[in-house]
Amino acid sequence: MPVICPSKEKEINFKMKTVIIDRGEEGKRQTPQLLENASLPDIEAGQVLVEIKACGLSTIRIDLLQELGLHGSKAPLGRDIAGIVTHVGTGVTSCRKGDEVVAILPLDSPCSGCAEYCVVGEYDLVVKPMRVSFQDAAACIGDAVTAYTALQCMGKMISGDTVFVVNGASSVGSMVVQLAQHWGGKVIATSSSAEETSYLQNIKPQIGQILETDEALKKYAMLNQCLEESGGLGVDCIIDDGVIVFPNEEDDLTLNPARRRQLKTLPTKHEIISALAVGGRWITKQSNLQIDPPDSRLLSLKAASICYLNDTVWTLSCQQQGKYLHILRDIIDKLADGVIRPNITRTVSLEGVCQIYNSLEGQTLGKTIMIRDSP
């Protein structure tokens, strides 16, 4: 039997505001909608109700939703949240009412992070230290989990490794850069604008090398500079932000302008494989990657490997739940200690999310977050 969520100590409206994504009948559209009178979610055993204070924004993974058959024509928006526990379901022991928490909503959660309230399972959240702000926690948690997964779980990074990060000033890229440096790596990062270069130059300790992806010099420049920086040996770990799969893909006029701009910042498959060292690891976000026989042969000669980065896998399976919770706690501890810092470049209200959603695709500098003040 679901538990009624409002507490007697604080009167809460039984309706709330939330933002959802209308995917259309075919499930391929992404139109944000603000619902003014959505029902407050019910709490079941092992769950808590969280009053949301901040939510990190990113575009939803339509491909994953279709593959898993989730959410139908309406999908929740926003998964990285920080807020205050207002009600605790039966059996919950990891937190209590009034705790400040940070969480990543599972991909199959019916709740939007862009809302006034949401329901979270107790094993999808960690208690937030008071010295960490809601904004920093929400801006950091999801991207830091992605970076942690890429570097430690897939890249098997060790101190002394050379790590090449594509779009190092992006929200995920900046987390990769900071964690890699903290763990003793030498970082090479790409930048596609003066603003991105300025941000990367101000990261402490200083990044080993910043490669500017100038269109006029792009062809093979990334490869040559990586090899030069590594003494011709290649880099140990490459973490991309996607790659150019087909020739001249960035000039395809059927793509939207934001996607074309993003493609101009990305390397080709051959550039990445050629820049890998012997035994190198390539961590890719490109789910539809196709490796041609010559490139496959080159990977084989180098004894190099490719890993596909899907950060949502942690919340789609409970097989490694303990490890996942350890990662969440470690990230929050590093945020509290100043080891990592999010780069928040834009904040919006809950009501303003719909207006800026379409500009999130292709954002290569910093993080956009939704912040909400209690009435």
Describe this structure in words.
The chain has helices spanning 62-68, 134-154, 171-182, 194-201, 221-229, 257-263, 269-275, 293-302, 313-316, 321-336, 353-356; strands spanning 15-22, 31-39, 47-56, 74-76, 80-88, 100-104, 117-121, 125-127, 162-165, 186-191, 209-212, 235-239, 276-284, 305-308, 344-348, 367-371. It has 375 residues and is α/β, with parallel strands linked by helices. Strands 3, 5, 6, 7, 8, 15 and 16 form a seven-stranded mixed sheet that branches. A six-stranded parallel sheet has the order 11-10-9-12-13-14, with helices on both faces. A three-stranded antiparallel sheet has the order 2-1-4. Helix 8 (293-302) links the parallel strand 13 (276-284) and strand 14 (305-308). It is globular.
Strand content: 25-35%
Number of strands: 16
| Spatial gap, N to C terminus | 30 Å
What is the string of helix and strand elements?
Answer: EEEHEEEEEHEHEHEHEHHEHEHHEHE
- Tell me the radius of gyration: 21 Å
Shape: globular
Largest beta-sheet characterization = 7 strands, mixed
Average pLDDT over all residues: 88
Q: What low-confidence regions span 5 or more consecutive residues with pLDDT below 50? A: 1-12
Number of helices: 11
Q: Percent of residues in helical segments?
A: 25-40%
- Based on secondary structure, the structural category is alpha/beta
